[in-house]
Structure formats: C-alpha cells, structure tokens
Amino acid sequence: MYRFVLRRLLSGVLLLFVITTVAYLLLYAGGGDIARRIVGPTASQAQVTLKASQLGLDRPLVVQYWDWLTHALAGDLGRSWFNGQLVATGVSSRVSVTLSLVLGATIIAAVISVVIAVLAAVRRGWVDRVVQFVGVLGFAIPGFLIALGLVSLFALNLKWFKATGYVPITTSFGGWAATVTLPIIALSIGCIASVVQQVRGSLIDALRQDYVRTLRARGLSFNRVVYRHVLRNAGGPALAVLAVQFIGLLGGAVIVEQIFALPGLGQIAVAATSQGDIPVVMGVVVATAAIVVIVNLIIDLAQGWLNPKVRLS
Amino acid sequence: MFRSKRMAAVIAAVALGLTACGGGGAAAPQDQSSQTLTLGALLAPKTFAANQSEFANLSPFYQAVYDTLIRMKPDGSLVPMLAKDWKYNADKTVLTLTLRDDVKFSDGTPFNADSAKQNLERFKAGTSPDAQFLAALKTAKAVDATTLELTLSAPDPAFLNYLSKDASFMQSPASFGNADIATKPVGSGPYVLDTAATVTGTSYSYHRNPNYWDKGLVHYDNLVLNVYGDQTSLLNAIKSGQLNAANTADNNTLTEIQAAGYKVNPLQLNWAGLILFDRAGTTNPALKDVRVRQALNYAFDTKAMLQSIGQGYGELTTQVFPPSSAAYDKSLDSRYAYNPAKAKELLAQAGYASGLTLKLPSSALMGNTLPALITQQLKDVGITAEFTDTGNNFIADLLAPKYGVSYMILEQQSDWQLINMKISPTAPWNPYKYEDPKVDELINKIHVGSTDEQTAAAKELNKYIVEQAWFAPWYRPQSSFVTDARTKVEVQTGNAYPFIWSFSPAS
C-alpha cells in the first residue's frame, strides 16, 4: 500500500513539473509586450523599459523560468505584476472560495445522484424514464444559463440569496451559505446529470449479477443487498466519474465565479490571463494542478479501499 | 414502502439543508446602513504605490487613502487641500504652495514640504501612466516645513489641475521602501484600508481615519469598493440592492436599473466619432485636402448614429472641446449637420468625384454594427471603407501610427490637457505629429498668455480645428452614474467616477 501511495505521489510531482513548465513557456510565448501593457499605450518607451527591467523581463527566458522554479520550490511564487500582491497570498485566499464551490457541488452531486440513481435502477419503469429525460436535460443546459436563471429567480425576485459577493465561512456561516448556495446549485446540476447516468448503469449491471440473487436467496433484505453490496461494487466507476466531474467543475467555476462576482481562482485566472500577469497565472496553474493531483490520489486510494484488486494493478 | 420512506428522508434532509442555507441568506445583514458606503467599480487598481497610481475610474480607490495637495470640486474649480494656498510668479514658472502643518500619515509620520517634494519627484520618475502630468516640473524645493516651491521648465496651464489628481497623491515617505506598498497603502486620506477584509482585485474595505484633519470631508464610517469584472454581475449587484452607487458601462441597462429604484446621474466625459489622423496625407493623399476631411464630417447621419449606437443617450457635436471648456462654442455643435449631397460636392471639388478608398481599423470591442454603419454611410457619399481587424492591438496600431482615419471614443479634458493629448505636435493622439503654424501659434498663446488671452486663443483654436476638420466627431455620449435612494452624489466634471467626498447619505 505504501509503495502504491509513493508511486502515485511521485507521478503527481512529475505531472506538476510538466504542467508548470509547459504553462510557463506557453504564457511567455503568448505574452507579447507585457511591460507596455502594464504602463499603458501612451507611456514613453523609457517607462516601458524601466518597467520591463523592474520585472526582470529583459533577462533570457530560461533564466526567468529557472528563477521562477527555484523560488516556487522554496514556496515563493513571486508578486503580481499588476497589483503587487504576493501570488501565494492571492491564490491561497481564493482557493478556499473555489474549493467551497467545487467540493460543495461534488458532495451535493454525489448524494443526490446516488439517491436518484438507486431510485431509477431499482424502480425502473416510468421513474427510470423520467430520470433519464431530466438527466439529459440537466446535462444539455449550460451551467451559466442555470446560474443566470437562479440569480434572476432566487436573488433578484425572491431575494432569498445574494446575487453577488462572498462572505467567508469564518465570518458568518449564514452569510457564507447565502453567497455560495446558488453557485453550488448551478455547478452541481450538470454534474448530477452525468453521475446519475453512470451510477444508474453500474447499479443495473450489478443488480443482474449472480451474487445478488445468492444474497437475496440467503434471506438478506433487498435494501441491505443494495446499500451494502451492490452500491459498493458500483462505487468504483461512480468515484471515477465524480473525480472527472470535480476536475471539470474547477473549469466550470470560472464562469460561475464571474457571474456571482466570487473572489475565487476562476476570477483571478480570467483577470490575470487577460492582462498577461504571468506570476499570478502560474500561481493558479500550480494550485489547480496540485488540487487535481491530490484529488486523483484520494480517488485512487478510495478505489483501492473499495476494490483491493486496484492496489495490485 | 420502507425503501421509498428512507429515500424520501434523504431527499428531505438535503432539501432542508438547502433551505436552511436560504434562511441564513435572508437573515444575513445587508451591510448598507448610512454608515457604510458600498460602491461598485469596473476596474481594480494595479497597485497602491502612489508613484504608480492612476486616476479616472480608479480615483476612489486612491482618494480614500491618499490626499492631494489641491482639491477639485465637482464643478472643476480648485480649492485648498493639503496646500492651504498657492501662487505663481509673474511668468508662471515658479509655484509656491503653503502647506498644512496638522496632517499626519496613517503610520504617524508628519506631512511636510519635504514629503510633498519627495512624492512629486517620485511620481514624475515613476511608472504611472500619468507620469507625464509632471513633465514640466523641473525642481521641487522644501523651503521650510510648510512652504513648497515648484519650478517649472515652462508654464503649464494644467499644472494646478494635475496637482488635484494622482500626480500629487501623498504617500508617507517612511513607506517608500515597503515591499508590500502595492497592497498596503500608507497615506493621510479620509479612510484607512482594512487589508484583512480586502480581497485584492475584488473587494476593498476601508474604515474612517480617526485622525483625519478635515472631518467635513468624511461622510461615512466605512467604505467598501467592489469590483465587477463581468457586466452581468455588476447589474445583478445593482438590481439586488447590494450597492449604494456604481458606474455602468452600458446605457442599455438604465431602464432596468431605474426600475430597481436607482437614480441615474448623467455626465458627459467623452466624444465619439472619427479621428482624421493623417492630415498631411502621408498614407492617404486624399486626407491632405481639407475638403475631403470636411466631406467626412458631412457624411455621417450623427443623429441616427447616436440613436443606434448610443441608444439616444448623448448630445450631437462636431467639436472635441467639452461644454465646460472656455473654448467651447455651441454653434460648432452643428457646424457639419448631416448633408450627404454637400459631402459628395466637396469630394468632387477635391477631385474624388469617382470615389475614394479609406482604410480603417476595427476591433472586437466595436462589435459588428459600427463598422457596418460606417461602411454604409461612407458608401452613400462614394467612399469605400476597408476595415482591418487589429485584434488586441487597436490602440497600439492607432498610435503606431498605422491608420489615417479611425473610429474612437476619446476623453474630453480641460483645455491644456486636451491640447496636449490630441492637438499639439507632440500629443500621443496626434500620432503623425501633424503641425500647422496657426495651431502652434494659438497653442503658444494658451501656454504663456494671460487668462483673457488664453480664453480667446482657446476659442479660436477650437473654431480653427473644426473648420480644418482635424476630427469628425459625432456626439458626446452620456455616461451614467447610478445611486440608490439612500445616497446623494455630485458627479465630477471631467472624471468618470465622482470624487470620494462627493458622496453623502441622502437624508
């Protein structure tokens, strides 16, 4: 088991290195005249040169990258070129917002999907058909449209929730819930739609297995068979889908954060990318890549726990 | 039965959880008492370092923490601030300011002439886009603690104006070397930034400066500036009453905003239309002929343009000087009333009866309608418009200069700023560096003349520029600043955002 974890960790670190290197090179290639963009189109050439020199942009690319990498390994991700904030501070303060959304959406999606999928797989018939139809609908409607609809109904008309802004959970739980509920719902609907399909399929397959019949014949109740055995067997594929969905949600959060003006990673990523603020973009890349690596590791471990064969493979 | 009960319980629990969240939301305090002013903004400051600061839309972020030497009132007049009074010598090259002696920065450092001197020198040498505001400043000298003497290389009629803007933001000299000055400003302003409650780039929270020297300028205990990178989220924040006031980027949404109980405070900051950069005909010989440039002025149905592009919010004009300027002449607003026949006639006189081709730049920001309208109206008088998409390089290409003519929305500043921005041979918006002896002579009169001479020369310059058709302005679009019922504001002449002390509780 230790070797399994170690192997996964090492490949995660390698992945982080590759992602950050490629990202740095791509960003630099597409960066253009960043110093000019920072000081504005009417600034003099002397001001542009001064800014470029202040930022170290006049050094060769390899030197800049090496400088970034060695500092990053020591935990220093530099400062934003546009607002001077420490990247580590800016990114870490926003990770909690994005994780609130993405984890919240994943947990809600997991719970609701399993409930609905069990209903559909066990009951079949019209229940199953309705679930399938609604699932396709939920999958087809873009997240931002759902977000806009939710804002319009629950924030602007009913005034149950806040339309924009974010209150940290440490300041007020009620305030936090008021600001993240609609974004979480907007994010989770698409996720629920695809996880339900996956879990439903796995459950139907599992319910047809011989061991189900055997267990029922030994006198176990249907509920016990479904919740103790069938769900556990169907859990592996469901977890894999959830992991993929989680990573997809990180992308979906970008748009939702913009609509709800939430200070998350998505918002900072959009602002920094459009400005060409490379240190901040790199900070976001490192944070999201690290999240993805950690989530994959957790999913691998969970699958190993659910199914010992995975550990051996 | 048991199965469905259990599932129903799970569903109910989830639903209850969500409803509980909703309850929390409804109960959450709407931090909007008269003691907190919550403003919406479209842009966030890049840094709080005073020598890299900017103005216009970003002015409230800085004005909350940094005082200026001079204060500009909403009508554009100048009144004392950190400088109690000031006077020029006879040839307007030495400005002597008498400073207050009762002001302290938030770190306890006292404000004096030496700190003012250092701040001005740093701004001039810094990387603020407005660093050229202090181009005329040759030396700054602290004569004593409260006397500051500024020597200019040449008279600058806009210099006092600049001292009411970012050029004279006063930061504590003790903080000049602070590594975190970009996020932790140290000024003497009416508010102090609460860095713990601030999310850089998104939401800025300030508290009243308890030691502020002029209590009369501080109308709120707390100030919150929220930044909306997305138009929809700004509109939603306004419609749901989360903001006391905000500027809007789009007049299309005004009806919705008014329906939500907000008042629209109109202001005119810009003019929109064509800039005829290439008056010497370097890239297109036709543009050298004043008749062709005048024809371009006659060719546009500006009323229809204002209606279709600006939704009717704005006033027609054919001059670049604003109504607040001494150079403004109301009759010039209709100097080139829409007359396609006259445009064709002028083109024929100039030798282009059989047609003419103009290359113009386009950008995604212009949308599709604008290039189509321009193309159609030019076609009606026999001019073929050829648009090239400049991608993200629109402004850079204009200033390079790569185009003889372009659509543009430009700011209308005070006379001397306006001249230096778009008329003088060194102006960035005169990229071909076009010179005309008569214009130079008038600029010189405005530069060194007495107040009466300046006014007369400015009027003459404006008329001459319109007659010579250096530009083809269409209209002055209305910008809108919206306030809720609890908030009163006076919009600022020449600035996109009202100044921070112009806000007060309505009751």
TrEMBL record, chain A:
The chain crosses the membrane at residues 12-31, 101-122, 134-156, 176-196, 238-260, 280-299. Residues 95-303 form the ABC transmembrane type-1 domain. This is ABC transporter permease. CDD domains: TM_PBP2. It comes from Arthrobacter ramosus. Keywords: Cell membrane, Membrane, Transmembrane, Transmembrane helix, Transport. Belongs to the binding-protein-dependent transport system permease family. InterPro entries: BPD_transp_1_N, MetI-like, MetI-like_sf. It is found in: Cell membrane. It is a multi-pass membrane protein. It holds the Pfam family BPD_transp_1. PANTHER family: DIPEPTIDE TRANSPORT SYSTEM PERMEASE PROTEIN DPPB-RELATED.
UniProtKB/TrEMBL annotation, chain B:
InterPro entries: Peptide/Ni-bd, SBP_5, SBP_5_CS, SBP_5_dom. Residues 78-426 form the Solute-binding protein family domain. It is a lipid-anchor. Keywords: Signal. This is ABC transporter substrate-binding protein. The keyword tRNA processing does not apply. Residues 1-26 form the signal peptide. It is found in: Cell membrane. Belongs to the bacterial solute-binding protein 5 family. It comes from the Bacteria.
